[in-house]
Amino acid sequence: MNDKTKLKAAKDLGKGLKTIGDWQRYIATKLHQANVWFGHGAANGWEEANLLLSEITQLHFEDLPNYLTYRLAKDEQAELALLLWRRLNERVPAAYLVHKAWFAGLPFYVDERVLVPRSPLSELIQQQFEPWLVQQPERILDLCTGSGCIAIACAYHFSEADVVASDISEDALHVAQMNVAEHELEGRVSLVQSDGFYDIAPQQFDLIVSNPPYVDAEDMADLPEEYHHEPELGLASGEDGLDLVRHILQTSPDYLTEQGVLICEVGNSWVNMVEAWPNVPFTWLSFEHGGDGVFLLTKQELIAHQAEFSTQGK
């Protein structure tokens, strides 16, 4: 179906509505009635409505409450109706529809070459990883950077640090480069194409932070339709979700300074990790705003359990 046909199909959506407030309530209601999946940076229909309205009106979503009685122009209503039709019928995540997602309070360009930013790591970054870092990091590695959101957020919150962002996907790195340029961080955030650590030159970092692919085969088979718009390369990681995590555990000590730490998100696969390595003292981090499945290990802890990482959990 081409855009002209979609526009025709969407023409009756929101018919008779005029104001931003009218559309806000209407979009939220339609989304909830359609049982769409809210798992891509928005918790509910209201948040997705605000994301769509913010893009159409060019108002920051936090300012929308001040403009609820303002009327939308006819062309704005038509564009909004088309976006809503695609969200309802094609199950495209709202962030992809407007090519924008928010992470750690910062805006990022996104499209279907990268995952939509939604990691609880944003909370840790905004807290500068307190109290887990012994000292302010001078060098940070964001492994599996995707859109570059983690690397860029780290650069904002550690203004003296140099950040390396790596990803196996050339497409993802193109998006990351766009975001690095948009945030004017070319001098401090460098991009490297690499499958895990394999193509990263020997060097050391005070902090390695990673949100790698970690979805296991069972969960991949059950993912809601919205997730199928995302690159599978950024989600799937073998039968138990730990294929890349094993490599990270085995290799990261070589890339950490003596006081360095690894912080890694594994989502629901944390259960598989605990089963695979029951003797490893993973520190599982908690979050005020929700989220789980993020662990921390120091370089010394990683070294102490290298034999287990090399022989167990396979």
Descriptors for this entry?
single chain, 314 residues, alpha/beta, Rossmann fold, 2 domains, seven-stranded mixed beta sheet, two-stranded antiparallel sheet, 9 strands
Describe this structure in words.
The protein is α/β, with parallel strands linked by helices. The chain has 13 helices and nine strands. It has helices at 3-9, 20-33, 45-57, 74-89, 94-98, 121-126, 149-157, 170-182, 217-222, 243-251, 270-276, 299-304, 306-311, and strands at 101-103, 106-108, 139-143, 162-167, 189-193, 205-210, 256-265, 283-284, 294-298. A seven-stranded mixed β-sheet has the order 5-4-3-6-7-9-8. Strands 1-2 form a two-stranded antiparallel sheet. Strand 4, helix 8 and strand 5 form a beta-alpha-beta unit. Helix 2 (20-33) packs across helix 3 (45-57) and helix 3 (45-57) packs antiparallel against helix 4. The longest helix has 16 residues, at 74-89. The model has no long low-confidence stretch (mean pLDDT 94).
Helix-strand blueprint:
Elements: H1 3-9, H2 20-33, H3 45-57, H4 74-89, H5 94-98, E1 101-103, E2 106-108, H6 121-126, E3 139-143, H7 149-157, E4 162-167, H8 170-182, E5 189-193, E6 205-210, H9 217-222, H10 243-251, E7 256-265, H11 270-276, E8 283-284, E9 294-298, H12 299-304, H13 306-311
Helix pairs in contact: 2-3, 3-4
